[in-house]
Amino acid sequence: MSTGDRDALLLVVCADLSYAEVARALAIPIGTVGSRVNRARRKLRKSLTSQHRR
């Protein structure tokens, strides 16, 4: 997972920030926040699923 994806996900999930707040904090468009969070969630889900199957 890229640093940008991880940062966006952590700010949304752990810091409980809105997408707009994350966009301001990272100085990126709100659409980019959504894309990064979505991509990070997919990667995390895939990683957890593959570990569970082992």
Descriptive notes:
The protein is an all-alpha fold and 54 residues long. The protein has 3 helices and no strands. It has helices at 3-13, 19-26, 30-53. Helix 2 (19-26) crosses helix 3 (30-53). The model has no long low-confidence stretch (mean pLDDT 95).
Spell out the blueprint of helices and strands.
Elements: H1 3-13, H2 19-26, H3 30-53
From the structure above, extract its key features.
single chain, 54 residues
Summarize the structure.
It contains 3 helices and no strands.
Largest sheet: none
Mean pLDDT: 95
Low-confidence stretches: none
Structural category: mainly alpha
* Strand runs, count: 0
Pattern of helices and strands: HHH
Helix proportion range = over 70%
The radius of gyration computed from the alpha-carbon positions, rounded to a whole number of angstroms, is 12 Å
Number of helices: 3
Distance between the termini: 21 Å
Large-scale geometry: elongated
Strand-residue proportion: under 5%
